[in-house]
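Consortium newsletter contribution from the modelling node. Members have asked for a concrete example of what our holo predictions look like. Here is one, prepared for the S-adenosylmethionine complex that several groups have been discussing at recent meetings.
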Amino acid sequence: MGKGKLKRFAENQQFGHVFEPDYQSLIQKGFEWKGNWQSWFKQPGDITLELACGKGEYSLGLSARYPHRNFIGMDIKGARLWKGAKQVAEEQRGNVAFLRQRIHLIPHFLSPEDRVSDIWIVFPDPQPREGKEKKRLTSPAFLSRYRSFLPPEGKIHLKTDSRMLFEYTESVVAEQGLRVLERSENVYRDYGPDSELHIRTFYESMWLEMGRDIHYLCFEIGSDGL
Ligand SMILES: C[S@@+](CC[C@H](N)C(=O)[O-])C[C@H]1O[C@@H](n2cnc3c(N)ncnc32)[C@H](O)[C@@H]1O
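And here is the predicted structure:
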Protein backbone atom coordinates (compact mmCIF):
# COMPACT_ATOMS: atom_id res chain seq x y z
CA MET A 1 0.00 0.00 0.00
CA GLY A 2 1.32 3.47 -0.91
CA LYS A 3 2.46 5.94 1.74
CA GLY A 4 -0.23 8.41 0.65
CA LYS A 5 -3.01 5.97 1.47
CA LEU A 6 -1.49 5.05 4.83
CA LYS A 7 -1.26 8.74 5.71
CA ARG A 8 -4.92 9.24 4.81
CA PHE A 9 -5.98 6.22 6.90
CA ALA A 10 -3.98 7.56 9.86
CA GLU A 11 -5.59 10.99 9.50
CA ASN A 12 -9.06 9.45 9.33
CA GLN A 13 -8.39 7.83 12.71
CA GLN A 14 -7.56 11.24 14.19
CA PHE A 15 -10.63 13.02 12.84
CA GLY A 16 -13.45 13.24 15.38
CA HIS A 17 -16.01 13.30 12.57
CA VAL A 18 -14.96 10.00 10.88
CA PHE A 19 -16.33 6.77 12.35
CA GLU A 20 -14.94 3.42 11.23
CA PRO A 21 -16.03 0.72 13.67
CA ASP A 22 -14.95 -2.80 12.75
CA TYR A 23 -17.59 -5.41 12.09
CA GLN A 24 -17.06 -7.38 15.32
CA SER A 25 -17.42 -4.38 17.63
CA LEU A 26 -20.42 -3.15 15.65
CA ILE A 27 -22.21 -6.48 16.07
CA GLN A 28 -21.17 -7.10 19.67
CA LYS A 29 -21.35 -3.62 21.20
CA GLY A 30 -23.49 -1.68 18.75
CA PHE A 31 -22.74 1.83 17.52
CA GLU A 32 -22.63 4.44 20.27
CA TRP A 33 -24.35 7.23 18.30
CA LYS A 34 -27.22 5.18 16.89
CA GLY A 35 -30.42 6.92 18.06
CA ASN A 36 -28.24 9.73 19.42
CA TRP A 37 -26.90 11.54 16.36
CA GLN A 38 -28.83 14.70 17.26
CA SER A 39 -26.61 15.12 20.31
CA TRP A 40 -23.42 14.33 18.38
CA PHE A 41 -23.99 17.16 15.90
CA LYS A 42 -23.35 20.68 17.19
CA GLN A 43 -26.89 21.71 16.24
CA PRO A 44 -30.18 19.80 16.05
CA GLY A 45 -31.42 19.39 12.48
CA ASP A 46 -32.67 16.80 10.02
CA ILE A 47 -30.00 14.52 8.59
CA THR A 48 -29.26 13.87 4.92
CA LEU A 49 -27.37 10.67 4.24
CA GLU A 50 -25.07 10.29 1.21
CA LEU A 51 -24.44 6.65 0.29
CA ALA A 52 -21.47 5.51 -1.84
CA CYS A 53 -20.23 9.02 -1.07
CA GLY A 54 -16.70 8.57 -2.44
CA LYS A 55 -15.05 11.94 -1.72
CA GLY A 56 -18.28 13.29 -0.24
CA GLU A 57 -19.09 15.95 -2.83
CA TYR A 58 -22.83 15.87 -2.06
CA SER A 59 -22.37 16.06 1.72
CA LEU A 60 -20.05 19.03 1.25
CA GLY A 61 -22.09 20.75 -1.44
CA LEU A 62 -25.39 20.39 0.40
CA SER A 63 -23.95 21.27 3.81
CA ALA A 64 -22.71 24.59 2.41
CA ARG A 65 -26.18 25.30 1.01
CA TYR A 66 -28.04 24.15 4.11
CA PRO A 67 -25.88 25.03 7.13
CA HIS A 68 -28.73 24.31 9.56
CA ARG A 69 -29.08 20.72 8.42
CA ASN A 70 -26.77 17.79 9.22
CA PHE A 71 -25.05 15.36 6.83
CA ILE A 72 -23.51 11.90 6.98
CA GLY A 73 -21.49 10.44 4.10
CA MET A 74 -20.90 6.68 3.95
CA ASP A 75 -18.43 4.67 1.88
CA ILE A 76 -16.16 1.67 2.42
CA LYS A 77 -13.07 3.30 0.87
CA GLY A 78 -11.21 5.29 3.51
CA ALA A 79 -8.76 6.99 1.14
CA ARG A 80 -11.63 8.49 -0.88
CA LEU A 81 -13.72 9.50 2.08
CA TRP A 82 -10.63 11.21 3.56
CA LYS A 83 -10.87 13.91 0.87
CA GLY A 84 -14.25 15.12 2.13
CA ALA A 85 -13.30 14.58 5.77
CA LYS A 86 -10.14 16.69 5.34
CA GLN A 87 -12.13 19.59 3.89
CA VAL A 88 -14.65 19.38 6.75
CA ALA A 89 -11.75 19.56 9.24
CA GLU A 90 -10.06 22.48 7.47
CA GLU A 91 -13.28 24.46 7.23
CA GLN A 92 -14.40 23.42 10.73
CA ARG A 93 -17.84 22.48 9.55
CA GLY A 94 -19.80 21.05 12.44
CA ASN A 95 -22.59 19.56 10.37
CA VAL A 96 -20.85 16.75 8.46
CA ALA A 97 -19.75 13.29 9.62
CA PHE A 98 -18.49 10.25 7.71
CA LEU A 99 -18.97 6.52 8.24
CA ARG A 100 -16.51 4.04 6.76
CA GLN A 101 -18.34 0.72 6.60
CA ARG A 102 -20.33 -1.41 4.20
CA ILE A 103 -23.74 0.03 3.37
CA HIS A 104 -25.68 -3.17 4.07
CA LEU A 105 -24.80 -2.55 7.74
CA ILE A 106 -26.57 0.84 7.75
CA PRO A 107 -29.36 -0.27 10.18
CA HIS A 108 -26.61 -0.63 12.82
CA PHE A 109 -25.83 3.10 12.56
CA LEU A 110 -29.20 4.85 12.45
CA SER A 111 -32.67 4.68 13.98
CA PRO A 112 -35.88 6.72 13.52
CA GLU A 113 -34.87 9.02 16.45
CA ASP A 114 -31.96 10.30 14.36
CA ARG A 115 -34.28 12.30 12.06
CA VAL A 116 -32.92 11.20 8.70
CA SER A 117 -35.11 12.89 6.08
CA ASP A 118 -33.49 11.85 2.82
CA ILE A 119 -30.84 9.72 1.21
CA TRP A 120 -28.71 10.61 -1.80
CA ILE A 121 -27.34 7.60 -3.67
CA VAL A 122 -24.78 9.12 -5.97
CA PHE A 123 -23.28 7.12 -8.82
CA PRO A 124 -23.37 3.79 -6.98
CA ASP A 125 -21.78 0.78 -8.67
CA PRO A 126 -24.64 -0.39 -10.93
CA GLN A 127 -24.01 -4.13 -10.37
CA PRO A 128 -25.29 -5.07 -13.86
CA ARG A 129 -25.04 -8.88 -13.55
CA GLU A 130 -28.39 -10.45 -12.72
CA GLY A 131 -26.91 -12.47 -9.85
CA LYS A 132 -25.76 -9.20 -8.25
CA GLU A 133 -29.22 -7.60 -8.07
CA LYS A 134 -29.26 -7.79 -4.27
CA LYS A 135 -26.13 -5.62 -4.18
CA ARG A 136 -27.80 -2.73 -6.02
CA LEU A 137 -28.36 0.08 -3.55
CA THR A 138 -31.95 0.54 -4.76
CA SER A 139 -32.92 -3.16 -4.58
CA PRO A 140 -35.89 -4.16 -2.38
CA ALA A 141 -33.43 -5.55 0.18
CA PHE A 142 -31.68 -2.17 0.51
CA LEU A 143 -34.95 -0.19 0.57
CA SER A 144 -36.04 -2.38 3.50
CA ARG A 145 -32.82 -1.53 5.33
CA TYR A 146 -33.39 2.21 4.78
CA ARG A 147 -36.95 1.85 6.15
CA SER A 148 -35.51 0.79 9.51
CA PHE A 149 -34.70 4.49 10.14
CA LEU A 150 -36.25 6.59 7.32
CA PRO A 151 -39.93 7.60 7.75
CA PRO A 152 -42.38 6.67 4.93
CA GLU A 153 -42.31 10.23 3.54
CA GLY A 154 -38.48 10.18 3.50
CA LYS A 155 -36.93 10.71 0.08
CA ILE A 156 -34.46 8.70 -1.96
CA HIS A 157 -32.49 10.61 -4.60
CA LEU A 158 -30.72 8.43 -7.15
CA LYS A 159 -28.23 10.08 -9.51
CA THR A 160 -26.62 7.75 -12.03
CA ASP A 161 -25.18 7.47 -15.53
CA SER A 162 -26.34 3.85 -15.71
CA ARG A 163 -29.46 3.43 -17.83
CA MET A 164 -29.76 -0.11 -16.49
CA LEU A 165 -29.76 0.98 -12.83
CA PHE A 166 -32.14 3.87 -13.57
CA GLU A 167 -34.68 1.58 -15.27
CA TYR A 168 -34.20 -1.14 -12.66
CA THR A 169 -34.93 1.39 -9.89
CA GLU A 170 -38.02 2.62 -11.72
CA SER A 171 -39.26 -0.97 -11.91
CA VAL A 172 -38.72 -1.49 -8.15
CA VAL A 173 -40.52 1.79 -7.43
CA ALA A 174 -43.44 0.77 -9.67
CA GLU A 175 -43.65 -2.76 -8.19
CA GLN A 176 -43.74 -1.33 -4.67
CA GLY A 177 -46.23 1.41 -5.59
CA LEU A 178 -43.92 4.20 -4.37
CA ARG A 179 -44.54 7.85 -5.18
CA VAL A 180 -42.18 9.35 -7.78
CA LEU A 181 -41.43 12.99 -6.98
CA GLU A 182 -38.99 13.86 -9.78
CA ARG A 183 -37.56 12.10 -12.80
CA SER A 184 -35.02 13.19 -15.40
CA GLU A 185 -33.18 11.32 -18.12
CA ASN A 186 -30.79 14.22 -18.58
CA VAL A 187 -30.13 16.39 -15.55
CA TYR A 188 -28.06 19.02 -17.36
CA ARG A 189 -30.82 19.54 -19.90
CA ASP A 190 -33.69 19.62 -17.39
CA TYR A 191 -32.30 21.56 -14.39
CA GLY A 192 -30.71 25.02 -14.23
CA PRO A 193 -27.27 25.74 -12.77
CA ASP A 194 -28.69 26.66 -9.33
CA SER A 195 -30.08 23.15 -8.87
CA GLU A 196 -28.56 20.75 -6.34
CA LEU A 197 -28.27 18.37 -9.25
CA HIS A 198 -25.41 20.49 -10.57
CA ILE A 199 -23.19 19.47 -7.65
CA ARG A 200 -20.68 17.40 -9.60
CA THR A 201 -18.88 14.37 -8.21
CA PHE A 202 -15.55 12.82 -9.19
CA TYR A 203 -17.12 9.91 -11.10
CA GLU A 204 -19.76 12.14 -12.64
CA SER A 205 -17.07 14.33 -14.22
CA MET A 206 -15.60 11.24 -15.88
CA TRP A 207 -18.97 10.12 -17.25
CA LEU A 208 -19.74 13.61 -18.53
CA GLU A 209 -16.41 13.75 -20.35
CA MET A 210 -17.40 10.51 -22.05
CA GLY A 211 -20.63 12.19 -23.21
CA ARG A 212 -23.00 10.18 -21.03
CA ASP A 213 -26.38 11.52 -19.90
CA ILE A 214 -26.91 11.79 -16.16
CA HIS A 215 -30.21 10.39 -14.86
CA TYR A 216 -32.06 11.36 -11.68
CA LEU A 217 -34.95 9.74 -9.86
CA CYS A 218 -36.46 11.00 -6.60
CA PHE A 219 -39.10 8.94 -4.81
CA GLU A 220 -40.65 8.44 -1.39
CA ILE A 221 -39.41 5.39 0.49
CA GLY A 222 -42.91 4.38 1.67
CA SER A 223 -43.44 1.42 3.99
CA ASP A 224 -42.54 -2.24 3.70
CA GLY A 225 -45.45 -4.30 2.43
CA LEU A 226 -47.23 -1.38 0.72
C1 LIG B 1 -18.60 4.69 -8.69
S1 LIG B 1 -18.07 5.17 -7.09
C2 LIG B 1 -18.95 6.71 -6.85
C3 LIG B 1 -18.31 7.56 -5.79
C4 LIG B 1 -18.91 8.99 -5.69
N1 LIG B 1 -20.30 8.97 -5.29
C5 LIG B 1 -18.77 9.72 -6.99
O1 LIG B 1 -19.78 9.92 -7.68
O2 LIG B 1 -17.63 10.13 -7.31
C6 LIG B 1 -18.97 4.05 -6.05
C7 LIG B 1 -18.57 4.14 -4.58
O3 LIG B 1 -19.37 3.22 -3.85
C8 LIG B 1 -18.57 2.65 -2.82
N2 LIG B 1 -19.20 1.37 -2.47
C9 LIG B 1 -19.56 0.38 -3.32
N3 LIG B 1 -20.16 -0.62 -2.65
C10 LIG B 1 -20.19 -0.23 -1.34
C11 LIG B 1 -20.67 -0.84 -0.14
N4 LIG B 1 -21.27 -2.03 -0.16
N5 LIG B 1 -20.54 -0.17 1.01
C12 LIG B 1 -19.92 1.05 1.04
N6 LIG B 1 -19.44 1.66 -0.05
C13 LIG B 1 -19.58 1.03 -1.23
C14 LIG B 1 -17.20 2.51 -3.45
O4 LIG B 1 -16.19 2.43 -2.48
C15 LIG B 1 -17.13 3.78 -4.30
O5 LIG B 1 -16.50 4.85 -3.62
